[in-house]
Design brief:
mainly alpha
Length: 238
């Protein structure tokens, strides 16, 4: 971790137009939860449906995409990253710092709102709220690592990430069991499924399979980002 890089990255993320989305998406979830509460429709089934259907399927991946691509993508696009690469800072430190900032943003703007929404709608029933929060944290870390790697590899990282979320996880995931099983969302949901006894949460992948996949994909994303960033420094030096 590099404190200076982290501080600059936080300041840049919270000062851009991206910050509007960081605040807007959790606000939508809060409004939806409050509306369900007012309408007295916040039973366990509804709470699980909202947390999965909006929290896991929309809020978590989109915020991870915004944070993961935003912490490093713009710097690569405008060439500012070369200023960092000329400093005596190991490339893995740069990547891990950017990744840590992105994970912190996802935790604050996605995981915490999911936890609070679960508590608002279901209270402590069936440990639904902490179970969804744990799953969101596990999935958020993996999503973020993948999107940071995409941001280092491609200038079209946001588009590629959005296609993955909308086409692979949302569209194909509803019709193709294979696509659903190879989904970060389902792997994260398996964590939630293992932590709550309610039958309203059901993942397509068992936890003994999903947990190693979450760790492996997150690690692969971080390693790939480091390797690619090292090649950027070589190109700049030449």
């Amino acid at each position: 971790m590099n404190a200076t890089i982290a501080m600059i990255t936080f300041r840049a993320m919270l000062g851009r137009r991206r910050a509007v989305l960081l605040f807007a998406l959790p606000l939508l979830l809060a409004v939806l939860a409050a509306l369900m509460r007012v309408l007295d429709a916040s039973d366990l089934d509804t709470a699980a449906a909202v947390l999965h259907g909006f929290g896991f399927a929309v809020l978590l991946p989109l915020l991870a995409l915004i944070a993961g691509t935003g912490v490093i993508g713009p710097e690569i696009d405008d060439g500012q990253i070369m200023y960092v690469l000329t400093k005596p800072i190991p490339r893995h430190t740069v990547v891990l710092t950017k990744l840590a900032v992105a994970i912190a943003l996802v935790t604050v703007f996605a995981v915490v709102p999911i936890l609070l929404t679960g508590l608002l709608m279901a209270g402590g029933t069936a440990q639904l709220a902490p179970a969804f929060a744990a799953g969101a944290l596990a999935g958020g870390i993996t999503y973020t690592a993948v999107f940071v790697a995409l941001a280092v590899i491609s200038r079209n990282a946001a588009v590629i990430g959005l296609l993955y979320v909308l086409v692979w996880e949302s569209l194909l995931g509803n019709f193709a069991p294979g696509a659903r099983s190879a989904s970060i969302q389902q792997w994260a949901l398996s964590v939630t499924d293992a932590l709550t006894p309610t039958s309203y949460v059901h993942a397509s992948v068992d936890l003994p399979v999903a947990a190693p996949l979450l760790v492996a994909v997150a690690a692969a994303g971080a390693v790939l980002a480091v390797v690619r960033l090292r090649s950027l420094s070589v190109v700049a030096a030449e």
